[in-house]
Amino acid sequence: MRFAPNPNGPPTLGSTRGIVVNSEYVKEYNGTFIIRFDDTDPVTKRPMLEAYDWYMEDCKWIGAEPDQVVIASDRLPVYYEYAELLIAGGHAYVCTCTQEEFKKLKDTKQACPHRDIAPEENLREWKRMLAGEYEERTVVLRIKTDIKHKDPALRDWGAFRIIKTPHPRPEVGDKYVVWPLLDFEGAIEDHLQGITHIIRGKDLMDSESRQKYIYDYLGWTYPHTFHWGRVKMHGFGKFSTSALSTSIKSGEYSGWDDPRLPTLRALRRRGIRSEALRKFFIDMGVGETDISLSLDNLYAENRKLIDADANRYFFVWDPVRLEIPGFEPTVARPSLHPSEDRGFREIPVTSSVFVCSRDIKDARKGDVFRLKDLCNIRIIDGNTAEFIGYDIETIKKGKGRIIHWAPVDGIPVSVMTPEGEITGIGEAGIIKELDAIVQFERYGYARIDSVDKQVIAYFTHK
RNA sequence: GCUCCGAUAGUGUAGCACGGCCAAUCAUGCAGGACUCUCACUCCUGCGACUGGGGUUCAAAUCCCCAUCGGAGCACCA
User: Fold this and answer.
1) N or C: more exposed end of chain A, with fewer CB within 10 A?
2) What is the CA A397 to C1' B33 distance in angstroms?
3) Is residue A160 part of a domain?
4) Angle ∠(A124,A128,A133) on CA atoms, nearest 5
5) Of all nucleotides in the shown strands, which has a C1' nearest the CA of A103?
6) Which nucleotide lies nearest residue A96, CA to C1'?
7) Inside any domain, residue A246
8) How far is the CA of A289 from the C1' of B55 (A)?
9) Cβ partners under 8 Å of residue A384, min gap 6
């Protein structure tokens, strides 16, 4: 099996599906997993140098280390060789029609004048192409199919064109001016690498019919193919790699791992486990239906994985200070985890704490609350309350709500979420959790990304 | 305009190649409940679908036709 991305950005949720499902089949049937960089367009979908490594990194992280790596831009001579074979066999021709001219003829099922030129002449023209004698957009090498084919998409498709912009990879640079199009490059590589099964997007459904002409001319057997539909993610708008790239450069996003982006590295930074991603995509299977899915399933999967590990902490967002006059300073000792026996945090408390404004803003005089793992209080007015005891049982019997809180000398915490940044105060112990996933009680899970004068956490999910 | 593909609960998915075992699977979601010093976790209960119409057949989610809806291709992009 192979996964064939164009490295013009980091892997996204969509690419991840390709990586996971292909590699899963490989595991199940003991096959070979090849990652092939289809980087044969130095202009329109110009590859990013860093992205090659990003793909390798992300594949590894998600448990899909490739057995082989192929970089198409390294293999132009191979493609040239087969092109010549096809030209010599009279199966391909050099066409100097303009795009518009050819389209017009093709749409009316008419051959262009170049179609009947003799192979020898085509070979000579091909050499001129390779020698750089043609300018961009003046010539193209076409594969001869059936100009009268009922499906216009299959009529004499283009296989090579001229591009004089250097390739971003320094090893390649301006070495070549004749570049293959996807259907040609992919057709040759799939055969050369002995690919037996291809899963490709529904948008590439015609590729098989197009490429089969080459396979027939060369006497090859076409791999088995499957297709999958388009994936739309709820909560993520439409995005294209190139559009994202500009938004990142302009500073609209902090980078390719901005928590608002559906890239693998962003999800990783947020604390999504690779196992959750794998299960999510494997359960989804390979369907031709276009799907529009929510990340709830992924989050649910992830929650099961992280809940037992995630230590609990108090994080108060939208904090308001609540005074409890006369309360004797003490040390609260909430447990690190409600069911795993992992010990306690220790939080020194004085006669005032922070609580979420949401929790007390509608409270009236006399309302009773339990500050979780600390004490019971009764509201006096908007931001003062009186201490009324430590006993949890009295709260359990009554109707007082249990709310969480943070010490007034706590640490500032910023949580980066897909919806934006949430700031508040957390207990100081959070600084011990650098790089770990914690649960902010009554808020959700988050990965502690950095710890300095303040804590930066990346929101995982509820 | 021409061509191709798809359609099962809110979402995703199993079943469809070989029609009966499907009063349709699983997950998530939602609702209710148990547990709990978190709105988390765990557990229990419940809700919810074969796009429509014809046909073939003793029997259709499964086969055929039409319609509707959705997606894609017809690039010197991938």
Assistant:
1) C
2) 19
3) no
4) 155
5) B74
6) B76
7) yes
8) 27
9) A322, A323, A324, A325
Q: Which of the nucleotides in strand B have any atom less than 7 Å away from a protein CB atom? A: 1-8, 10-14, 27-29, 36-42, 70-78
For chain A, how many structural domains are there in total? Answer: 2
Q: Which domain, by its residues, includes A43?
A: 2-73+228-299
User: In the structure, how far is the CA atom of residue A233 from the C1' atom of nucleotide B10, in angstroms?
Assistant: 15
Say which CATH number the domain at A347 has.
Answer: 2.40.240.100
Which of A299, A331, A357 delimits the end of a domain? A299
CA torsion A257→A263→A264→A270, rounded to 10°? 50
Q: In whole angstroms, what is the distance from residue A132 CA to residue A69 CA?
A: 30
CA→C1' distance for A3 and B29 (Å) = 32
Please report whether residue A66 resides in a domain.
yes
Query: A332 with A294, same domain?
Result: no
- HSE-CB at A421 with a 13 A cutoff on CA atoms is 11
Measure A199 CA to B68 C1' (Å).
30
Q: What ipTM, to 2 d.p.? A: 0.93
Question: For the domain that residue A39 is a member of, what is the CATH number?
Answer: 3.40.50.620
My answer on whether A234 and A350 are in the same domain is no
Nearest nucleotide over every DNA/RNA strand to the A42 CA, judged by C1': B77
Domain final residue pick, A299, A321, A337:
A299
Residue whose CA lies closest to nucleotide B29 C1': A296
* Length reported for chain A: 462
One digit per residue, the tens of pLDDT, for chain A of length 462 reads: 999 999 999 999 999 999 999 999 999 999 999 999 999 999 999 999 999 999 999 999 999 999 999 999 999 999 999 999 999 999 999 999 999 999 999 999 999 999 999 999 999 999 999 999 999 999 999 999 999 999 999 999 999 999 999 999 999 999 999 999 999 999 999 999 999 999 999 999 999 999 999 999 999 999 999 999 988 888 777 677 888 888 999 999 999 999 999 999 999 999 999 999 999 999 999 999 999 888 999 999 999 999 999 999 999 999 999 999 999 999 999 999 999 999 999 999 999 999 999 999 988 899 999 999 999 999 998 899 999 999 998 888 877 899 999 999 999 999 999 999 999 999 999 999 999 999 999 999 999 999 999 999 999 999
One domain for residues A406 and A275: no
Q: Provide, in whole angstroms, the distance separating residue A292's CA from nucleotide B8's C1'.
A: 16
A149 Cβ contact list (under 8 Å, min separation 6): A155
DSSP state of A366: T
Q: Specify the nucleotide whose C1' lies closest to residue A142 (CA).
A: B76
Decide if A290 is inside a domain.
yes
Q: Check whether residue A290 and residue A395 sit in a common domain.
A: no
Distance from residue A318 (CA) to nucleotide B58 (C1'), in Å? Answer: 70
Shared domain check, A378 and A280: no
Residue A290 shares a structural domain with residue A328: no
Give the nucleotide at minimum CA-to-C1' distance from A375.
B37
